[in-house]
Amino acid sequence: GENVEQHPSTLSVQEGDSAVIKCTYSDSASNYFPWYKQELGKRPQLIIDIRSNVGEKKDQRIAVTLNKTAKHFSLHITETQPEDSAVYFCAAPLVSGGSYIPTFGRGTSLIVHP
Amino acid sequence: DAGVIQSPRHEVTEMGQEVTLRCKPISGHNSLFWYRQTMMRGLELLIYFNNNVPIDDSGMPEDRFSAKMPNASFSTLKIQPSEPRDSAVYFCASSFASGRNEQFFGPGTRLTVL
Predict the structure, then answer these.
(1) Chain B residues in contact with A47 (beta carbon < 8 A)
(2) Per-residue pLDDT at B94 exceeds 70
(3) Would the pLDDT of B1 be above 70?
(4) Which residues of B touch A3 (CB under 8 A)?
(5) Minimal Cα–Cα distance from A51 to chain B, Å?
(6) Contact with chain A for residue B107, Cβ under 8 A
(7) How many CB pairs under 8 A join A and B?
């Protein structure tokens, strides 16, 4: 099945610094790579996603890059703010019998110190 | 749309009791997912329905867990009998076209089994 590895598990930065979270996946047929943000006590919510036909996507302070050859994708947050503190999850689908079964990484706890 | 609706939001029960969690997906979505979230195991996919049909239930821990989706607007996750190790937050999510698109999560049900 699909194996999604996410690193680091914890990331602590100073306000204004950049943060990078990396994920690797195993299923070469995977073609959709979302990132979810989960604030304490809340539900996960999509913040950005990328499909396999592009290598990079940006939305204001966040960006995602994808390297299909190496099977890894990364989340980049620039000019971090305290409200960016949350747990971030990457995901990739296991493609099986025509179905796309989502598989999540273990999550990265990002702490932004004011 | 009100988003994905889950009930109850909190459930406290005693070991051995039956627990039923309920979910109403977003209208028009044809995929529904049940997840369990704990500190130790992260976000685990329990079962995934597509067009009301269970596609993958390999994540269901054991026979004590069962899930149904009798129609496009309602799903249940049942635990019978419940055990303390079932204590977790259970999320329901829905999407259009399986794991190839954004999943919208419900607020979750926090289950405590004493």
Answers:
(1) none
(2) yes
(3) no
(4) none
(5) 9
(6) yes
(7) 57
- A8 close to A21: Cβ distance less than 8 angstroms: yes
Amino acid at A45: Q
Cβ contacts of B106 on chain A, cutoff 8 Å: 43
Highest average pLDDT, of A48-52, B31-35, B39-43, comes from B31-35
Quickly tell me which residue has 């999560």 as its tokens.
Answer: B105
How far does the CA of residue B94 sit from the closest CA of chain A (Å)? 12
pLDDT attached to residue A59: 94
For residue B32, give the nearest of B88, B81, B90 by alpha carbon: B90
Cα A49 from chain centroid (whole Å): 8
Residue A54 contacts B where some CB pair is shorter than 8 Å: no
- Partners of B11 in the β-ladder: B111
Chain position carrying tokens 């303390």: B84
What whole-number distance in Å separates Cα of residue B26 and Cα of residue B6?
Answer: 11
Kindly give the parts of chain A with pLDDT less than 70: 1
Q: Can you tell me the distance from the alpha carbon of A37 to that of A43, in angstroms, rounded to the nearest whole number? A: 8
